[in-house]
C-alpha cells in the first residue's frame, strides 16, 4: 500500500520520491543545520543517492562540513524550502529533510547527532541515543 516517501518544497516547484527504505533517521543539532534551517535542529533521512527521484532543479549552496569535506545543501530557488544535503557522508549517501515530506509522520528519528551543538532550549527525545558528533558507527559505513 505504501508508495514510498514523497515530498517537495513549499511552493511545489520541486517534487521528489524516495524509493525503498531509509537507512537512518536522525535529529541533527549541528551549527550548520541551525543556520541553514533557522531552527534548533533538523530531522534528516539518510538514503543512497540513487533512491532519490527528483522533479525540478534545486538551487545549491556548498561549504565545508565538520569533517573537512564539502557539503552541498539543495533547496528550492523560489521558496527556499530545504530538500536534501549531499557530501560529507561516507559513500554515496544523502540526507533528505524529513520536514519536506508530504507526511513527515511516516518517519521517526532513531538518534540525535551533533548534540555538542545543541541549544539549551531545544528539546530532544532523551530516550533516543545521543552522539556528540556523528555516531561511532552511523550504520552507513559498510
Ligand atoms: Zn519551492
Ligand atoms: Zn547538521
Number of helices: 1
The overall pLDDT, averaged over residues, is 91
> Considering DSSP H and I runs of 4 or more, what fraction of the residues is helical?
under 10%
Reading off the top of the CATH hierarchy, the class of one domain is best stated as Alpha Beta
Spatial gap, N to C terminus: 30 Å
Low-confidence stretches: none
Tell me the β content: 25-35%
CATH architecture of one domain: Alpha-Beta Complex
Tell me the strand order in the biggest sheet. 6-7-8-9-4-3-10
- Kindly report the name of the CATH homologous superfamily of one domain: glutathione-dependent formaldehyde- activating enzyme (gfa)
Distinct bound molecules: zinc ion
| Content-based structural category | mainly beta
Q: What's the assembly state of these chains?
A: single chain
Question: How many DSSP-defined strands?
Answer: 10
Helix-strand sequence: EEEHEEEEEEE
**Sheet of most strands:** 7 strands, mixed
The dominant shape is globular
CATH fold group of one domain: glutathione-dependent formaldehyde- activating enzyme (gfa)
Task: Please compute the radius of gyration using only Cα atoms.
Answer: 14 Å
Amino acid at each position: 500500500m505504501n508508495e514510498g516517501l514523497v515530498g517537495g518544497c513549499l511552493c511545489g516547484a520541486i517534487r521528489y520520491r524516495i524509493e525503498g527504505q531509509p537507512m537512518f533517521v536522525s535529529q541533527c543539532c549541528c551549527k550548520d543545520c541551525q543556520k541553514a534551517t533557522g531552527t534548533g535542529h533538523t530531522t534528516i533521512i539518510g538514503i543512497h543517492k540513487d533512491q532519490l527521484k527528483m522533479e525540478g532543479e534545486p538551487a545549491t549552496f556548498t561549504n565545508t562540513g565538520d569533517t573537512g569535506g564539502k557539503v552541498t545543501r539543495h533547496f528550492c530557488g523560489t521558496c527556499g524550502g530545504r530538500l536534501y544535503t549531499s557530501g560529507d557522508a561516507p559513500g554515496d549517501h544523502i540526507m533528505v529533510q524529513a520536514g519536506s515530506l508530504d507526511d513527515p509522520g511516516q518517519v521517526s528519528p532513531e538518534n540525535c547527532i551533533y548534540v555538542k551543538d545543541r541549544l539549551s532550549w531545544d528539546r530532544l527525545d532523551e530516550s533516543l541515543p545521543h552522539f556528540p558528533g556523528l555516531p561511532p558507527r552511523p550504520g552507513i559505513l559498510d
